[in-house]
Amino acid sequence: MYEHLAQSNVAALQAARFDRIVTTDPHSLNTIRNEYPQFGGSWQIVHYTTLLLELLHQGRLRFEPRLQWRATYHDPCHLGRFNKEFDAPRQLLQATGCELVEMARSRDNSFLLRSRRRPDLDAGPGRQGKAGADPDSRGGADRGAGAVRGGLPEGSDDVRGMRSRRPVTKGASW
User: Please, which residues have CB within 8 angstroms of residue 140's CB and are 6 or more apart in sequence?
Assistant: First the structure.
C-alpha cells in the first residue's frame, strides 16, 4: 500500500512545476526528503521554520512587538533526530524576543512525544524506553519557561492548551 501511494505521489509531484517544497509537517519533510528518492523523486524540501528564518535574514520578515517571554522548544523527532534540523525553530523563537531555555532532553536526545503512550518507541541505542513521565513534561516550567512544542503527535489532545489565554506548558505548535 505504501509503495503504491509513494509512487503515485512522486508521479504527481514530477508533473508539477515548482522551485521547492515548503512544509509545516516534519513527517512529510522526512518522507519526501528521505523516502521518495527510492521511488525516483528528489526535490528540495524545507521546513517552514527554515523559510521564515530565510525571510527574517533577508529583512522581509519582522517580529513586533517583542514577546519578552521565557520559552522552551520540543524538537519533533522527524525534524530533529531524523533530519538534523534544530536551529531554525530556536532562532525564530529568539527573534521574537523569547529567552530560550533548553529542556533536559533536546535536539538528538529529545523525548519522543508518542512514547508517553508507547514507551517502546523511545527505545533504541542510548535511550531508556522506560514507561513513565517525560522528564520535560512540564516543558521547562520549573525553570520559568512556557513550552513551544515542535509538533503535535497525531491524535493528540494537546491542542487544548493552545486555547487558554493564561501561560501554559503546552504551547503553540511550530
Answer: 70, 71, 72, 101, 102, 103, 146, 147, 169
Please give the grid coordinates belonging to residue 157.
489532545
Give the global pTM: 0.69
Q: Coil, strand, or helix at residue 21?
A: strand
Instruction: Look at residues 95, 46, 75 and name the one whose alpha carbon lies nearest to residue 150.
Output: 75
Rounded-to-integer distance, Cα 126 and Cα 138, Å: 23
Rounded CA gap, 116 and 153, in Å?
11
Write the DSSP symbol of residue 127.
B
With pLDDT > 70 as the criterion, what percentage of the chain qualifies?
Answer: 64
pLDDT in tens, 11-24: 999 999 999 999 99
Query: Alpha-carbon distance 31 to 40, whole Å?
Result: 13
The backbone region for 149, taken as left when phi is positive above 0, alpha when psi lies in -120 to 50, beta otherwise, is: beta
- Three-state SS at 173: strand
- Joined together, the cell numbers standing for residue 119 give 514507551
Give all strands (DSSP E) within the chain, no chain letters. Answer: 21-23, 45-47, 70-74, 99-100, 146-149
Largest CA distance in the chain: 51
Query: 40-71: per-residue pLDDT in tens?
Result: 999 999 999 999 999 999 999 999 888 889 98
